[in-house]
Specification:
Layout (H helix, E strand, L loop, with lengths): L1 E7 L2 E4 L4 E4 L8 E4 L2 E4 L9 E8 L11 H11 L5 E10 L4 H18 L3 E10 L1 H6 L4 E4 L4 E3 L11 H6 L24 H25 L8 H4 L4 E3 L1 H5 L5 E2 L4
Parallel strand pairs: 6-7, 7-8, 8-9, 8-10, 9-12
Antiparallel strand pairs: 1-6, 2-3, 4-5, 10-11
Helix pairs in contact: 1-2
């Protein structure tokens, strides 16, 4: 689910932008239902400084009602539409999913933030892991709850081996390809060592992209070894702050 909620507010950024304080965020605009969530009906009609909040909740992927660039594009654009926009906040609750869609969503947010010259702040609720953490890195500051699950900077791929199952029922697998690498880890064929090695190489390439992205976004802020940070481990709340994956334990609402 993706949504945008907008407030008429007098926001102030305190302590060198370490936390966003919306002192007058008391009046919330009316909203209307949309397929992917809620969108403010008055975005872009502000007479006072405003803060937009984009809700990025759910699994990242191309499936129905999942977070992807197609389902979030209109909300991202709407968030940056107000003329007197002080900041955009990302309210994140996602265990991750597609690395490509994570990159596309975050890049779109960064593009508009640069174009509009508006700061972006991330707030992780229950979980901001894997692709969810990639989204959080679109913010210049990352805030977490004390019990938020953060990190999981790794890549995973899983499947099943069903060759014995189909053999039990007298089913014969017939697979034809042009190109020796066209079939990878076919679940109805015995697992081959070259498939294991190829899969490992692909996962490591994606992992390298992920790690490079975190190094760039959190440059100068990471406080632990890469062996600890980039092994797929998750960190809880303040621990994520301590190792440099987040900036402060501070909630948005």
């Amino acid at each position: 689910m993706s949504a945008i909620i907008a407030w008429k507010a007098c926001p102030s950024v305190i302590s060198s932008t370490k936390k966003l304080c919306m002192n007058s965020c008391k009046k919330k605009f009316s909203t209307s239902t949309h397929r992917y969530g809620l969108i403010s009906t008055l975005v872009g009609r502000f007479s006072k400084p405003s803060v937009s909040v984009i809700q990025l909740h759910g699994i990242i992927g191309k499936g129905p009602k999942q977070l992807n660039i197609t389902s979030t594009e209109k909300f991202i654009k709407a968030a940056f539409k107000p003329k007197k926009l002080e900041a955009v906040c990302l309210n994140i609750n996602s265990p991750g999913g597609s690395p490509v869609q994570s990159e596309l969503i975050a890049d779109r947010i960064n593009q508009l933030a640069t174009l509009k010259k508006v700061p972006v702040y991330s707030f992780i609720e229950d979980v901001g892991a894997s692709g969810g953490y990639w989204l959080a890195c679109a913010g210049s500051k990352i805030h977490v709850s004390k019990s938020s699950i953060v990190g999981s900077i790794g890549v995973i791929n899983s499947s099943f081996g069903l060759q014995d199952f189909i053999s039990r029922y007298g089913i014969e697998r017939r697979l034809f390809t042009a190109g020796k690498s066209k079939s990878l880890a076919d679940p109805f064929s015995p697992l081959k060592e070259e498939d294991v090695e190829r899969n490992r190489r692909l996962l490591e390439q994606i992992h390298t992209v992920f790690k490079d992205h975190i190094r760039e976004c959190r440059s100068g802020k990471l406080k632990s070894t890469e062996d600890e940070l980039f092994n797929g481990e998750v960190f809880i709340g303040q621990h994520a702050v301590d190792v440099g994956l987040a900036d402060k334990a501070y909630v948005l609402f």
